[in-house]
């Protein structure tokens, strides 16, 4: 089987050799800054924040992310003065100009930092007082039935 794959790969390379024309191109290349660099150098302002398209739900998400990173703020979907101050403190800590407004690169960095914080915190949230936070089969009759079904179905498909 490996020999067949190797043979087909060689045939495909030989067949496509005419597509690769050797020689210098007389056409100049376009040089531009990468999009991420351009976004990172944008000064954060109301305009850059408007370009992100933050709906009320997305603003609440930003507020939750800030809280998960240790920057406590009300999660109400409004960027009032206190939320702007929290954003400015987050920006200062990350080395950005403290404007209190976000640009696309900062929004993306905040999302990835919050996700990383959640992943790092997950093992400690799973255990409470040295035991699992919840155990299968607990939670009244419905929980017991669900736990029992989970064990039966799991046992059938594990074989």
Supply database-style keywords.
single chain, 159 residues, mainly alpha, Muramoyl-pentapeptide Carboxypeptidase, domain 1, 7 helices
Give the topology string: H per helix, E per strand: HHHHHHEEH
* Class by alpha and beta content: mainly alpha
Q: Briefly note the CATH topology name of the domain at 37-118.
A: Muramoyl-pentapeptide Carboxypeptidase, domain 1
Sheet with most strands: 2 strands, antiparallel
Q: Which stretches of 5+ consecutive residues score pLDDT under 50?
A: 31-40
List the strand order in the largest sheet.
1-2
Walk me through this protein's architecture.
By secondary structure, the protein is mainly α. The chain has a domain at about 35-120: Orthogonal Bundle (Muramoyl-pentapeptide Carboxypeptidase, domain 1), CATH 1.10.101. Helices cover about 60% and strands about 5% of the residues. The protein contains 7 helices and 2 strands; from the N terminus they run H-H-H-H-H-H-E-E-H. It has helices at about 1-15, 35-40, 45-50, 55-70, 80-95, 105-125, 140-155, and strands at about 125-130, 130. It has a two-stranded antiparallel sheet with strand order 1-2. Helix 4 (about 55-70) packs across helix 6 (about 105-125). The radius of gyration is 27 Å and the shape is flat. The two termini are about 30 Å apart. The model is unreliable at about 30-40 (pLDDT under 50).
């Amino acid at each position: 089987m490996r020999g067949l794959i190797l043979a087909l790969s060689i045939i495909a390379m030989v067949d496509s050799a005419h597509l690769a024309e050797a020689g210098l191109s007389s056409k100049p290349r376009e040089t531009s800054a990468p999009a991420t660099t351009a976004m990172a150098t944008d000064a954060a302002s109301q305009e850059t924040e408007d370009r992100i398209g933050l709906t009320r739900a997305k603003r609440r998400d930003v507020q939750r992310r800030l809280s998960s990173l240790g920057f406590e703020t009300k999660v109400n979907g409004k960027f009032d003065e206190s939320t702007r101050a929290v954003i400015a403190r987050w920006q200062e800590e990350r080395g950005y100009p403290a404007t209190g407004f976000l640009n696309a690169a900062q929004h993306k960095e905040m999302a990835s930092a919050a996700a990383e914080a959640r992943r790092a915190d997950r093992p400690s949230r799973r255990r409470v007082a040295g035991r699992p936070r919840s155990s299968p089969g607990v939670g009244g009759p419905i929980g017991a039935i669900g736990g029992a079904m989970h064990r039966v179905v799991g046992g059938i498909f594990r074989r």
